[in-house]
Specification:
Largest sheet: 5 strands, antiparallel
Oligomer: single chain
Shape: rod-shaped
CATH superfamily of the largest domain: PAS domain
Helix content: 55-70%
């Protein structure tokens, strides 16, 4: 996690430092340009003020007065006549000579900038024309030494440097606390996942904020609970398999020893052999169901869908199941809309319905009716299996699709089954992208409903 915190810290610092550098650079440029522009405007305004005085009295006394005023300030003035001759100057004219050029083009009344390159030139300057009787009679050149501008920029740079250093320090402090705040819950999650890898599922995470880290913490807790549940289910699964395999094997071994070692009458011999045959069949069914579930868990079984017209499908199903229902004195009723079809695997659909109908037959009294009904509602195909048998207790309904779960805790062998049938049914229904639900009332009956996507 230290590596991650360093990476996050460096990444945050580079991003924030880059943004700050760009912002400071942009702000510095804007302030510099704005400040130089203000100096030029101030210089221009001062020149225009002198120009206004000279336009009223363009004589030597007024010129000397203007020169005297500028000699006491940080700026300089040079006054030229129309021919370019110096009429007055507040500074030695040699240092300013190269800037004193009579403009060839007309200068605007408000004047113009002569030199604005403060970074390379020793002066910035402006010029204002003197108009008398509508004619240009001279020019007022204003100068300001760029040392003052450089001094201003130096001070500005120092302030920016201090502000930048303070910002970097505060940024580093914020990043350290921010990184720790982000890494701390990740360290807790790392410890929890390590405990999970060691098989300790009784773990919890401290409550975090309602953000992505909080969602991740909740997901890890849900994952831990699921693993704990799966561990418990695996233990119960293995115990159930052990019991279900041991029981028929015990019967088979016990009655085989009786047949082999004892002198039995033909009637008893057939009786014991029938028991052995029944238990062998029961064991074979159990192994087949376990094999089916293993294939479903590994997604290694195929669902080959085809168009099934349910009327014809139910007719064939009725012919197949009629002897078993008649033998138990139960009535099976089929009801289906005309021309109703479903895209499904016919073998798997038959397996689903036979399993549910067989359960209804086992748990319904003699002379009862069991109804299989199919219809279309909107874009879904609904199939229900309804009986008027003993029903399922409300407390057992949430668990009847669990593997090896039996409502009848006594595990009476007269009803058979290992508690895998409904688990297989649910897996097959989900493989068809369908849903299965159950409603039941004790003493009145049970309804299983299948819902498949239609076309």
């Amino acid at each position: 996690m230290k590596k991650l915190s360093i990476k996050l810290g460096v990444l945050f610092f580079l991003i924030i430092f880059g943004l700050m550098t760009f912002m400071f650079f942009f702000l510095h440029m804007e302030i510099t340009e704005s400040r130089v522009e203000e100096e030029l405007q101030s210089l221009q305004a001062r020149g225009n003020s002198h120009r206004a005085v000279l336009e009223k009295h363009l004589d030597q006394e007024t010129i000397d007065h203007v020169v005297l005023m500028e000699s006491e300030s940080t700026t300089d003035v040079v006054i030229l006549n129309r021919a370019g001759e110096i009429m007055g100057s507040s500074s030695p004219s040699e240092t300013l000579r190269k800037y004193l050029k009579v403009p060839n083009s007309n200068i605007p009344r408000e004047g113009q900038v002569v030199e604005a390159n403060w970074e390379e030139e020793p002066y910035i300057s402006t010029v204002s024309p003197i108009h008398i009787n509508g004619q240009v009679s001279g020019y007022v050149f204003m100068f300001e030494n760029t040392e003052s501008v450089h001094s201003l920029m130096k001070g500005l740079n120092e302030h920016f440097l201090i502000a930048g250093c303070v910002s970097v320090i505060f940024t580093l402090i914020i990043i350290i606390f921010l990184t720790k705040g982000m890494i701390k819950p990740l360290i807790s999650m790392k410890e929890v996942t390590y405990q999970l890898s060691k098989g300790n599922f009784a773990v919890s995470l401290p409550k975090t904020s309602d953000d992505e880290l909080g969602d991740l913490a909740k997901s890890i807790e849900v994952f831990a609970n699921e693993l704990s549940y799966l561990k418990q289910q695996r233990s119960e699964f293995l115990a159930s398999i052990s019991h279900e395999l041991r029981t028929p094997l015990t019967y088979i071994k016990g009655y085989t020893d009786i047949v082999k070692k004892r002198e039995l009458s033909e009637e008893d011999r057939k009786k014991y052999l029938n028991i052995i045959s029944e238990e062998t069949n029961r064991l074979s069914v159990l192994i087949k169901e376990l094999f089916d579930l293993a294939q479903m868990d590994q997604n290694s079984f195929d669902i080959e869908k085809e168009r099934i017209y349910l009327n014809h499908f139910m007719d064939r199903l009725e012919q197949k199941l009629a002897p078993a229902f008649q033998d138990k004195e139960r009535n099976i009723l089929f009801e289906c809309e005309e021309n109703l079809f479903l895209m499904a695997d016919p073998l798997r659909l038959e397996q689903i319905l036979i399993n549910l109908l067989d359960n209804a037959r086992k748990y319904s009294p003699d002379g009862s009716n069991i109804k299989l009904k199919a219809w279309k509602y909107k874009n879904s195909i609904h199939i229900t299996i309804e009986d008027n048998g003993k029903g399922i207790p409300e407390k057992d309904i949430p668990y009847i699709f669990n593997r090896f779960y039996r409502v009848d805790k006594s595990r009476t062998r007269s009803l058979g089954g290992a508690g895998l049938g409904l688990a297989i049914v649910q897996e097959l229904v989900h493989a068809h992208e369908g849903e299965i639900s159950v409603t039941s009332t004790e003493g009145k009956g049970t309804i299983f409903e299948l819902i498949f996507k239609g076309e």
